[in-house]
Amino acid sequence: MRRVALVTLVVDDYDEAIRFYTEALGFRLAEDAPRPDGSRWVVVEPGPQGRNAHAAGTGLLLARAKDEAQRSRVGDQTGGRVGFFLHTDDFARDHARMAAAGVTFLEEPRREPYGTVAVFQDLYGNCWDLLQPADAD
Predict the structure, then answer these.
(1) Which residue, 90, 95, 94, 91, is CA-closest to 106?
(2) Of 57, 74, 107, 114, which is most buried with the most CB atoms under 10 A?
């Protein structure tokens, strides 16, 4: 086994989730295909745009909640903890771009021994770290 390829993120709506992850976070839409049951197979991933782009990390499978149990987990998939880590090679650039796009940061950027970091929320309230590892400073 080489890597974790996808992580499922339960969302309320495919299109609003696609907009957030591609426009606010700068991910690319890798797949969006209808499924026989009326759902869609939607994958977004970090990395460059373009036909031959390859994911620079694990992709997100955006899965629309199908029932009340799944709807209750939207925005709280990790019990309020930071559950997702978005690495960058230019913290200042990406922090400024994301803030300008309306991403909610829960704290000011801070320097830690492991790098520069700030916690932000996705459109549903899941907590993420924007992180420039110390070895990339």
Answers:
(1) 95
(2) 74
